[in-house]
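Dear Dr. V.,

Thank you for agreeing to look over these. As mentioned in my earlier message, I'm a first-year student in the group and I'm still getting used to reading structure tokens, so any feedback on how I've presented them would be very welcome. I ran two proteins. I've put each sequence directly above its structure. The first is here:
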Amino acid sequence: MFFNSFHFALFLPIVFILYWFVGHKSKINQNYILILASYYFYSCWDWRFLFLLVFSTLLDYVSAIKIEKSTTISERKKWLWLCITINLGFLGVFKYYNFFAKSFADLAHVIGFTASPILLKVILPVGISFYTFHGLSYIIDIYYKRIKSERNFVDYSLFVSYFPLLVAGPIERATHLLPQIKVRRTFNFHKAQEGIYQIVWGLVKKVVIADSCSIYANEIFNHYTTMNSLSLILGAVYFAFQIYGDFSGYSDIALGTSKLFGIDLLRNFNYPYFSRDIAEFWRKWHISLSSWFRDYLYIPLGGSKGNKLFQVRNTFIIFLVSGFWHGANWTYIAWGFINALYFLPLLLLNRNRNNINEFTLGINFESIRTLCNIVITFSITCLAWIFFRAKTITDALLYIKRICTNWNFSEEYFRIERYSHNLLPLILVFVIVEWNNRHKIEPISGKYSGLKLSLCLAAILALGVFSDYKQFIYFQF
């Protein structure tokens, strides 16, 4: 079930009515309604994988209790690693088995052997990377005694499978979400209104920006060998806005939907394309995943302690694992490696925490330098996105080579001529709106909210009718 589908447009009001008019008297009723709605939401993709979700939930639930009851460190570690191994085992089989099997066969071929690996013919369970990380963060927090284990299975199941965040995040923490689940929620009109505004703005990002950009990004990347330099540069820029509009739009819809039920989720994006360096970009892009890797991998590895070589090692591990988390392809690993290279000079010069303050632009030299840094950061981010989007590393390198060697910057004809001349002005308007609202939580609310809401709905209807790309990118991760 897509957030931008007619099915969801029917599903959400029904759940909302049941939640506030039938289940409002107790948190038990509210949680039962949400857990049943969440399981239905997930089963709409493929009901067979619902059993995997339930098994993962039960595994983490039992393991947490066993860890908490353990009287020795060795027993606590046993249950921790058993749970981690099984969780990552399922993730590895469904998401990475074919990748490793094919890579092994390719390596065998290079050294003169023939290998015919047995490949799994099974689709990737949607959301498995997200709900696996939900459970792992909970188990690790229990092990380190940061929280107590949850004994109410329905409450814990809702934490793992809460439908707004189930299939594409944000990756929630038990310390943030469970306390909200364990109390009865009361209806707050102002919060519900904010939620509706945020849902609409998320749909604008998805339908108006991401889907519009996807038409040309797909056309350019699929035919890059015949495109000139200008088109290839535009292709990288279009994809940058496609993936941002797509993923941050999903997060906005998720956060807005959750507000309708009186539950706040973690913010996942903070206007990352206005970052002044790559370190700031990663503090603002997919915040829940970046902070997850920081807290559960980077810090346990030693973090920023020790000498520079030690810090460099930890940094590359984080970025490579982050790339691999996104998908079973060498292009994602290359994307992670490139971002690690971007981060390296900042780390070595101790400048990775320079740009943590908010800023404004004025008519002065400092503002010009800030603007240049934003443009440079966005440019190198687009360069890295080429590897993320390309089918192979070879394709990405040839794409970049053609940009640098073609040197033809004339306007090029596309087979798809739908609003092609209006796309760049549309992106420019979107950037201006984002810039103007970068210090706000919700850009639609406030002065003239009725007019802004009407314009957003008109844009969704006008461009959504012609949208060729319905699925959210991060569903494949």
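The second protein is here, in the same arrangement:
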Amino acid sequence: MEIGEVGRARAIQVQGMLAVLRHVHAHPSTTRAQLARDLGLSRGSATEIVGRLHALRLVDESDAAPTGARGRPTRVVHRHAEGPVVAVVDVSHEGWRLAVAHLGGELDHLRREAHRAPAPEQVLTGVAAALEQVRTAYGTRLRAIGVSVPGTVSHGRLMGAATLGWHDVDVLGGLALASPPPVVVGNDATMAGVAEARRGAAVGAEVALYLTVEVGIGGVLLERGRAATGATGASGEFGHMPFGDPSRACPCGARGCWDLEVDGRALARLLGDPPPAAPRSAADAVFARARQGDHAARAAVDQIARNLGRGVAGLVNALDPQVVTLSGLAMAVLDLAGPALRAAYRTGLMAFRREDAPPLARAAFPADGSLRGAAELAFDVVLSEAGLDDWDKATPRPARTGK
């Protein structure tokens, strides 16, 4: 076989291995028969590819549960116990969390820390120390790191996180890891949206819109499970659309931002309270009063529900998603003031959209979506030609025996 033919054969082999590996990641514990059917492989090809991946300690097999059907029982294909992992970190306004993710999306939650001092240098130093412990524990099995941060991210830099007081932070440089594996840095809402599109409420949607309300509104548009992040990586700042009062200044530097109409700051203003130091906690307190029958609290929640619904309609008119997934405080608004939210949403839609309006769905991962999304994006690095080649080089081979 000529050199060119060898290269083509190798490329075909690698693509087949990646297709199977990505399928196992997306469908944990799939059967070998189902894998072959979904990927259009012959049984022989599926068996050969799974064998190669097993030799690389990427997948393993076990007996499927008996079904009573005739014929040779199929095998279940799942992650290898010694396979690759990624470390994922979620930095929030209150603290940070660390987990390890396996092929197939399973998370092992390892650590949670509150911010003792929210200066970026101190926070990132603590995160780096925890990541070094993970690397010590997993060695070469650690193949990538995903970091979720609560602010605008561009080219891997956190350009601004107003509630943390962070501006233009070099996250990778701040971690100062020695010879780190690839690191993916992204906005928390973007990463949570990826989790919903690939494993949650938006699975199967060609185009999905994810929105979350915490302190303001974050979100992302997703096409076939991939985030549309814009020219510089900073798209999804939907909370800074001018859907609010143009006389009201936003900490971002703009005026009339939608952010200021839908969260704890808006509720405080509607109730005549001073601006809250902790908008999320303030919103939770108002929601609790509304559930107990407080009429003023209920009226305030209804108003932010209408503000939310109108803005969602505007985004749907512009972006044309199949489904809108809501998370964070938006889920509580949907529960408490669903009729007001849906009425404003429907009224704001263009007439031709109303008959088959994209549904407003509750997020499947409201608590750890950003960690799960960070894991998905980190595994995108692992499940690539370069990632497979690097793993191949790092995988120890059985010792040969001879006479």
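From my reading of the second output: Residues 295-319 form the longest helix (25 residues). Residues 69 and 78 are 22 Å apart (CA to CA). Does that match how you would interpret it?

Kind regards,
E.
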